[in-house]
Design a protein that fits this description.
The protein has 66 residues and is of the alpha+beta class. It has helices at 22-25, 44-53, and strands at 3-8, 13-18, 36-41, 57-61. It is globular, with a radius of gyration of 11 Å.
Length: 66
């Protein structure tokens, strides 16, 4: 299973999702715009590290749909 980091720049927040999550599967393409971005990782540890260094507010690992 892979993991995705969602970063929302206007709200200054980030959250890790599973790539099987509906939010990730139904995301808008392209994955990177001025206001948001999705980045995939092969391990949860990599995604958590990326979230920590993003400088965004950590809104948690996994949403209710994950």
């Amino acid at each position: 299973m892979d993991f995705a980091l969602y970063v929302n720049h206007p709200t200054n927040r980030a959250r890790v999702h599973r790539t099987s999550c509906a939010y990730y599967r139904n995301r808008k393409i392209p994955d990177r715009t001025k206001t948001r971005e999705w980045t995939t990782y092969t391990t949860l540890a990599q995604a958590k590290t990326a979230m920590a260094v993003s400088g965004k507010k950590d809104t948690g690992v996994f949403c209710q749909r994950c």
